[in-house]
Amino acid sequence: MNWRGLFTREWRVMMRNRAGVLNPMAFMFLAVMLFAVGSPLQDESRAQYGGAVLWLIVLLTNMLSLDALFRRDYDNGVLEQMICSAQAPFLVVLMRVFVQWLGSGLLITLLAPLLCLFLGLPNSAIPTTMLALLCGTPALSLLGAVGAAITVGFSRGGILLGLLVLPLFLPVLVFGASAINTAIVGDGSSAQLFWLAFISMVALTIGPFATTQGLKISLQMQ
Description:
- This protein is mainly alpha-helical.
- It has one domain (about 5-220).
- It is about 85% helix and about 0% strand.
- It has helices spanning about 5-15, 20-40, 45-65, 70-75, 80-85, 90-100, 105-110, 110-120, 125-150, 155-185, 190-220.
- Helix 3 (about 45-65) packs antiparallel against helix 10 (about 155-185) and helix 9 (about 125-150) runs parallel beside helix 11 (about 190-220).
- The longest helix is centred in the C-terminal third of the chain and has 31 residues, at about 190-220.
- It is elongated.
């Protein structure tokens, strides 16, 4: 099966399981609204923490979508056939992660102006926020998929998934929040955006292969 066929298959699977996309998005907006309503800070002070809060919510939202990345196919026995029968298993994994990113990272990037409005971030920081999310969220999906592959066979994989991937997410959180903060004060954010893109490129290089090996280990432990 070529990459177009793989993309079509994964896209149809995601469309049939829209709750896997809508539920994390609903959690994200609920978390943002709770912060916006419950924060006692003024708009000027809230903007100082808005970037870090935004990225923290993005991390948690991404983890919700990653927990079900391979679990359905694992429970149905489809995952074993998909990995063992494919000529290039890493390509299957890469396409699955790419479609997951379309329904999480890219969607969050497109919704960034609305999120910035709720979090009290200035309009001048919106372009940098969108660029930071566009550069950083692929790393969240690629690195998170490794943890999802390792924990797919555990009944309470969500807790283990958090313990595994949160340390890997910290550099993205640091550079992402720093990029937004520097944009708010009017400084350049090119260095932070570069590092976010670099982390995503490294994750793209090793992530699909590590995820494939993690799935094989999980299947052998059945």
